[in-house]
UniProtKB/TrEMBL annotation:
InterPro entries: ABC_Transporter_SBP (IPR050902), Vit_B12_bind_prot (IPR054828)
Signal peptide residue numbers: none
NCBIfam families per record: TroA_like
Domain of life: Bacteria
Annotated SUPFAM superfamilies: Helical backbone' metal receptor
Name by which UniProt lists this protein: ABC transporter substrate-binding protein
Family: Belongs to the bacterial solute-binding protein 8 family.
Segments passing through the bilayer: none
Natural source organism: Asanoa siamensis
Length: 226
């Protein structure tokens, strides 16, 4: 999980023995690569003989977690769906690794401590297209945006990641489209044209969806484009 890899690498780097191919922060990270988050090479993980594997319930498959535990490898699974839950989860995880209250975690708490007081907006937040997939209920990214005055029009959907047809998205009542650059790499020329006449904001997926050291600067970065 890229967020967790970055948290460990910036706090207790000597403990990190491996990471997925998608773990790109910090830049130049030189550790064993074990494949993607969805289909890691479990033999490589076992061969590394880790004392602990860090995982995320949304990114990593339950079958892989069970297989590692069956092999005698402890797995720490995170699943924060709000900012508060993420900060608490990170604090507990790092404490388990012998690192308590690193500076970036204190900075993240401080950065998000002030409530939003401006005019609120209603937004549509796609995370994929072909087919269109949007943020729904109970998501970490949705909570971050809500703290910045941006309310998700699909926040009450029964699914966490609904797949409405484009016509429904256009009629959802949003006054803003928020387009992150991951997991789908939306750009000025790929995404906004589907919602003619609707203002849009291109945001960093790392600052919208990662929970780790990026949270210390995420508020400032997101506010700058929102």
């Amino acid at each position: 999980m890229p967020s967790l890899t970055e948290a460990v690498a910036r706090t207790v780097p000597d403990l990190l023995v491996g990471a997925t191919d998608w773990c790109v922060e910090p830049a130049g990270l030189d550790v064993l690569r074990v494949g993607g988050t969805k289909f890691p090479d479990l033999e490589k993980v076992r061969a590394a003989r880790p004392d602990l594997v860090l995982a995320n319930a949304e990114e990593n498959r339950r079958a892989d977690v069970k297989a590692l535990r069956a092999a005698g490898i402890p797995v720490w699974v995170t699943y924060p769906r709000t900012l508060d839950a993420a900060l608490t989860s990170l604090e507990r995880m790092l404490a388990a690794l012998g690192a308590r209250d690193p500076g970036w975690l204190r900075a993240a708490r401080d950065a998000w401590s002030e409530p939003f007081t401006g005019v609120r907006r209603r937004a549509l937040i796609p995370v994929w297209r072909r087919p269109w997939v949007v943020l729904g209920a109970d998501t970490f990214a949705g909570d971050l945006l809500a703290r910045l005055g941006v309310d998700n029009v699909y926040a009450t959907a029964p699914e966490r990641y609904p797949r409405p047809p484009l016509a429904e998205l256009r009629a959802a009542g949003a006054d803003l489209v928020v387009l992150p650059d991951e997991p789908y790499a939306f750009t000025a020329g790929d995404g906004p044209e589907a919602f003619p006449g609707l203002p849009y904001a291109l945001v960093s997926g790392r600052h919208l969806t990662w929970y780790g050291p990026s949270l210390a600067e995420a508020r400032e970065r997101l506010e700058a484009v929102l």
